[in-house]
Amino acid sequence: MVEDTSNSSNKPKAKERPKSVYSWTVFDVQKWLRRHCSDYYQTYGNLFQGHEISGRALLRLNDNSLLRLGIIDAKHREAIWREILKLRLKTDIMEIRDLQIRDVYNMSYDFYIA
Predict the structure, then answer these.
(1) pLDDT tens, 85-105?
(2) Domain 21-113, CATH
(3) What predicted TM-score, i.e. pTM, was given to this entire model?
(4) Where does this protein have coiled-coil stretches (predicted)?
């Protein structure tokens, strides 16, 4: 019997686009916090979970809201805030790229129709 080697699981998968931060669940934020703020995850992970911080809420956080959340230590807030800012920037860049791709597609579509 000959084994079928054309199985799709043998083919390399195209790089999947990451889930939009705006659609992150509380669990997704916990994963992000554990990965990007690992020094503070044990201390503040429960705060984020208890306040049900989703991706949309995470992007809205600022220094003052982190303080109100219960992160008293200024150095900890600064480190977490820095990671949130990086995430915002990355999210904004992805949105800009999406807009550019849509614009290019629309321009070529308009050209094709004309």
Answers:
(1) 999 999 999 999 888 887 766
(2) 1.10.150.50
(3) 0.74
(4) none
